[in-house]
Each structure stands twice: as structure tokens, then as C-alpha cells.
Amino acid sequence: MRKIHLITFGCQMNKLDSELAAEALAGAGHALVASEAEADLVLFNTCSVRDRAERRVLSRLAQLRPRREAEPGFRLGLMGCFAERDGARLLERLPYLDFAVGTRQFARLPEIVARLDYGRERIGFFGGRAEAEGDPGIGPASPRKRHSGLHGFVSVMRGCDNRCSYCIVPETRGGEVSRPPLEVAAEARALVLAGAREITLLGQNIDAYRKGSGFGLADLLRLIDREISGDAGLLRLRFVTSHPRDITRELAAAVREFPRAARHFHMPAQSGSDGVLARMRRGYDLAAYRERLAMLREEVPGAAVASDFIVGFPGETEADFLATLDLVERSGFQNSFIFKYSPRPGTPAARDFADDVPEEEKRRRNRVLLAAQDRVNRERGAGLIGTRLTVLAEGPSPRDPDRWIGRTDGNLICVFPPPVQGSDRAGSLLELEVLSASSLTLFCRLAPGGAAKP
Ligand code: 5AD
Ligand code: SF4
Fold it and tell me: Could you tell which of 9, 12, 14, 177 is best to mutate to test the pocket of ligand 2, judged by most ligand atoms within 8 Å of the CB?
């Protein structure tokens, strides 16, 4: 049996895949270990979304090469998006890599790891179609035994049928496959029974859940509400990521009606310029994005909306960038995740357009946009001083064990003195009063008389 150290890069779907892989490997009798030094197999769950993510894995692998060559029995493997995109070539090129398994084949990990003990074959499994039944990433779902902590993640669909011109995901994760609603609800319920208080439903393009079937994401939220409402425990339900074209008023209304749905949306705009949006093939223009944003805020008062932006997309002029800046300054986003454009091999943008915005200019636009979002955050924080907020208490802060942290349903981070009753309050809702605020953190105290909510 092996001692396996699993290192995860990339998005929440990758983190979930790592949990599922760890569960499958532990089920086959292997030990998951916390340090690389103890391990006799280091497995990287990789990301391809930007070039930097891939280069980081390659350099970590190269660092482990001497150990791989010196230590009999020590093995190296890759899973995830980079393995899917480039695994076959990497197996040819890197003699110290033992296996690579793609995003829809990692159910085979126990079999692959068992085979490592025999002979010197190098193993690769790629492609395939996600399973519709069970977790699509891993095949038929086992009853989940994984201990989830406060935050549980459930994939409801995988893959993406959009063709945003910059994006590698359709290639690395394939087309959209949705899971059956009852199975999603059962898994969410199992996680809540195992201790989860907040469930996040995951999908690369989650608003397209069972598109055209007459039972969409809004229905799924209602189903989960009904299935889990009898169990004390679920306090919050979130879902990510929303595409501005697919998100509906009906979904927003479901969020408003369902008391445990977090009033929080992640709806990436990517750019504020119509020309850039068209070249990105996003399927909406600025006016349509603004209209969707207004719709969310109308249906869900106080909704927090987070966005992603890419700066330095091919042909992005100063005027295009200023349009994006204006969108950030005027939209009151809960947060903006900002990325510098990175051409991905095989994507339409990499094929059709030169990467013509200089790196230095990408960096400057990144900085300017970050600073704008920072001003938005500070203004919001200042406006919240003196108000009361409800947070899901997570327990001691990893940075300062003398203070606790919690999150609002809009995903704002609050820091506060530990509640007197101690650790049993972790995982419950607390009422806080905001005393001061920085860009990313609200500093709070327990609100007078604001004990844990039922
Ligand atoms: N270059 C830079 N950023 C990208 N993203 C996706 N593809 C690229 C790329 N080629 C960003 C998008 C997406 C987020 C997950 O990563 O903003 O929403
Ligand atoms: Fe996640 Fe996309 Fe990175 Fe794959 S390429 S790990 S789907 S962010």
C-alpha cells in the first residue's frame, strides 16, 4: 500500500476531484499523507487555465526528479486538466513521470496505483465521456464517506458547451454532462449528515444544468430545500459559476425564496468592452451584462455578485480597458478576480489572434483594475460599519488563533473575538456588529443580544 501526497492546483472543481480521488485511493487501502517527505507517491492534480499553472507543475515535477531517480519505489503522477491536455506528450518527454490520468478517467486511479508496483510501464488514460450517473468525474458514486468539514462541495454538472475563444476548459473537461437531481440531493444530504453546514454546488457553467429538460437549477435548489429541510444542519447553499447568458430570473427568484440559499452569485463579465466580448465569443454585450446584473439585484435585494476579468485580451485597446474599468467602478462587485490573458494552445483565440498586448501593459491593467476593486471594497466596508451581519462561524483564524473568522452569505470575511462558549459555536450562525473594515476583512464583535440563530 502506498503513502500518497496529493497536491492540488486550480479551481474548486479540481479541489473536489482531489477529495474524490483521495476517497477512492483511501478506499483501496492507501494512506493519504500530509507531507511530500513521507510520501512514496506524489500526485499532482493540475490546472491548464493559464500557462503559469502548467509551468508551476512542471517545475515542481522537475524538483522531484532527483528523488524519483535515487529512491527505488518513489513514483510521480499527474491528474486533472493539464494531464488531460498534454499528458500523452508529457509521458513521452519526461522519463521520470510514471502516469498521467485525464479529467474523466480518474476513477481508474486505484487500478493505476496498483499497477505501479509491477514492472516499469508508464500509464496514461485520457479522453472518454463523463458519466451521467454518479459523479461524472469518477463514475458511479459511492455513498460518500468523506468527512467534509463545514463546507461540502457537490458537482452537479461537469464540462462546458460554450466556446469562449480563450478557454481551454471545453477541451480539458469535455462537453456538459448533468447529474440526476435526486442523486445530487442525496449527496448533499449525506454531506450535511456528515457535518457540512454549507453546501456549494459546482459546475463550470452551472446555469446550464439540464438545459432544455424542464428541470433546471432553480428546480434543483427547490428539491434540495425540500429533501434537506427536515434535517437540522444545512445553513447555506451556494452555486458557482454562472454564465451571464444562461442565468435566469426564475433562478434568482428561487434564491430569494429559499431561505438557505446564499444571496451570492459568481457571474463573470470578463470584459466591459463590446468589441472584446465579441472576440471572446461570450454571447452577450455590455448592455446585456448590465441588464442581468440589474435583474439579480432586483430579484435578490442585497445580492453579492462576484466577477472575473481578463485583461490584455488580443486587441484590447486603452478604450476597451477603460470600459472594463468603468464596469468595475460602477457595479459594486463583491469581488473581482482579475487575470492576465494567457494564450492556450488549440483555443480559437490562440489560433486567430496575436497575443499583442505587451506583458508590462497587462500587468499595469491588472494593477489598475485591482486598485479599482479595492476602492469598491473599502467603500462598501466603510458603509457597513455599525451594521449587523450574520456569519457562519468557521472557528479560529488560521492567521491568528486568538480570533475567529466567519463568512456572510455574500462571502465577506469577518474577524471577531471568540464567542465565550467556545468551539461548539463553530458551524453556527452568529450575529456580529461591524466595528471597522479593511478591503478584504470586516472586523467585528458579537452583536449585543445576538446569540446564535436557530
Ligand atoms: N487567460 C487568462 N485568464 C483566463 N481565464 C480563463 N481562460 C483564461 C486565459 N486563457 C479566466 C477567466 C475565467 C477564470 C476561471 O479564468 O476569467 O472566468
Ligand atoms: Fe479548473 Fe479550468 Fe483549471 Fe481545469 S483548467 S482545473 S476546469 S480552472
Answer: 14
